[in-house]
Write a structure and sequence with these properties.
single chain; about 500 residues; mainly alpha; 23 helices
């Protein structure tokens, strides 16, 4: 590490002096220099893979809905409780997860701790199936949830720590893209893994389900490895660049929540109501397409994963688009309206469901790229961890309640009533978006600025800061000039007075 520091110092000196001496340290390779793009791309790749295992295993129940209900002999409400148990701990802990990242663990240790919890939770979930004990599966999902959502907060905090300004939308898009690749692979491969394990054992049942889930848990170990490497690189960058990473400049109090602006609370409402109509629907979607549209199990898995398949490549594209154009609120509005149209088509028509699901995938990708970065525009930087944690917290409160409600509605009323319920949730999100537009307009907020306007105002602000710094330095120089210069006589008296003071002290 010391040689790396000397290498950086040597390269900095070389830049200023136009060529170093033969014995001066060599500059680090671009991939090893935290100031260079290749190294930052490596860090970005690790950030993206950080959530791969968590997202892969999150939708294990959805990919194996038929198998779980058959092998464990549970109804739809009990099945959806697996998602509720994932969400319940994060009603509180996800908020504190952001606080712990900011003030207790730090970003590096916090990420590792949450990754370990994800691994442990998945193992317990699989053991519950092996032991044919459903409450153990619930407990595993509970522990998995403690780590999963807090890990997402850590991922967001890492992103804000390493990337700034207009890069942020694209970074969020890439992170979401990799997460959705994990979800897509899960949807299309877990059923196949179950079949191979069944062929190996020669029968279906809890043991087959448990082994399948245990194999899926390997992805969580992969993400834990990424967390360890990322922690090392972040610590290394902190030492090489002499800066603190993942730490706040001020003390954060939990009472800061009461100071959140109305715009931020409306962002929270949009988040809760929108995702309540996405994730529970996907959790129950496979059987929905089998029953209403008479799809085979493989076809149902494929169409149920199309939202994630589209999201994977489109998220970075939309992230770049929002970066270039700005107007975040308008993009969120378009996404919510498209989602509402998709649910109405699925509820009241027998049109080819691929149309509605493809629209849903596009809308889901667009909303994530435009909504989540808006938090960074409305809260101070030192509160970002807390704000993102609170956003995840209330999102999980909504998901836990909606998951239970969706299971009960499906058991008692059927899929039509469930789709009407999801459409109502999207309507609430639409109302919140419209309110956010007017609140932002009336308060002079920057959420709906174009990218050019935001960049122009940032340059003006930077120029004003430089001018203020120049004036401050000039004032200091002027004050120094006003002070009388010391002549030989005053210097002699000052020197003799010091000698006298020393003599008095020694007597």
């Amino acid at each position: 590490m010391a040689e790396e520091e000397r290498a950086l110092l040597g390269s900095a000196g070389g830049d200023g002096g136009g060529g170093g001496s033969p014995g001066s340290p060599r500059a680090l390779p671009a991939v090893c220099d935290p100031r260079r793009l290749p190294h930052r791309l490596l860090v970005l790749a690790l950030m993206c893979f950080l959530g791969f295992g968590s997202y892969f295993c999150y939708d294990n129940p959805a990919a194996l809905q038929t198998q779980v209900q058959r092998d464990m002999m549970v109804n739809t409400a009990q099945f959806m409780a697996l998602y509720a148990w994932y969400s319940w701990p994060n009603v509180v802990l996800c908020f504190f997860g952001g606080f712990l990242i900011d003030r207790v663990f730090g970003i590096r240790l916090g990420t590792i701790v949450f990754s370990v919890l994800v691994c442990v939770g998945q193992v317990i979930f699989a053991l519950g199936a092996l032991l044919n004990t459903f409450w153990v599966m619930d407990m595993g999902r509970f522990i998995f949830g403690i780590g999963g959502e807090s890990l997402a907060v850590a991922q967001n905090t890492y992103a804000v720590s390493w990337f700034k300004g207009k890069e942020l939308n694209l970074v969020f898009g890439l992170q979401l893209s990799m997460a959705r690749i994990g979800s897509t692979v899960n949807m299309n491969i877990m059923g196949w893994i179950y079949s191979r394990v069944r062929d190996l054992l020669g029968y279906t049942g809890p043991s087959t389900l448990g082994l399948t889930l245990m194999i899926g848990g390997v992805t969580c170990l992969f993400s834990l490895t990424c967390a360890l490497i990322l922690a090392y690189l972040d610590k290394r960058a902190e030492k090489l660049l002499c800066k603190e990473q993942g730490k706040t400049g001020e003390v954060i109090k939990l009472t800061d929540v009461k100071d959140f602006s109305l715009s931020l609370w409306l962002i929270f409402v949009i988040c809760v109501c929108y995702y309540a109509a996405i994730f529970p629907f996907i959790g129950l979607g496979k059987v929905f397409f089998i029953e209403k549209f008479k799809f085979s199990s493989e076809e149902a898995s494929a169409i149920n994963s199309i939202v994630y398949i589209i999201s994977a490549p489109m998220s970075p594209v939309f992230g770049l688009l929002v970066d270039k154009l700005g107007k975040n609120i308008i993009w969120v509005l378009c996404a919510v309206i498209t989602t509402l149209a998709s649910h109405i088509m699925l509820a009241f028509t027998f049109w080819n469901p691929w149309i509605a699901m493809c629209l849903l995938g596009v809308a889901y990708s667009l909303l994530a790229c435009a909504l989540w970065p808006m938090v960074a525009f409305v809260v101070p930087e030192h509160q970002l961890g807390t704000a993102y944690g609170f956003m995840q917290s209330i999102q999980n409160l909504g998901l836990a309640i909606i998951a239970i409600a969706a299971g009960m509605i499906l058991d008692t009323r059927g899929y039509l009533f469930l789709e009407v319920f999801f459409s109502a949730c999207v309507c609430l999100s639409l109302i919140a978006v419209v309110m956010l537009y007017f609140v932002n307009h009336l308060t002079g907020g920057d959420l709906n600025w174009s990218a050019k306007k935001r960049e122009k105002l940032q340059k003006v602000a930077a120029t004003e800061m430089e001018e203020q710094e120049r004036l401050r330095c000039q004032n200091e120089d002027d004050l120094a000039k006003l002070q009388p210069k010391a002549d030989d006589f005053s210097l002699r008296n000052k020197y003799l007075s010091k000698l006298g003071a020393q003599m008095l002290v020694t007597k």
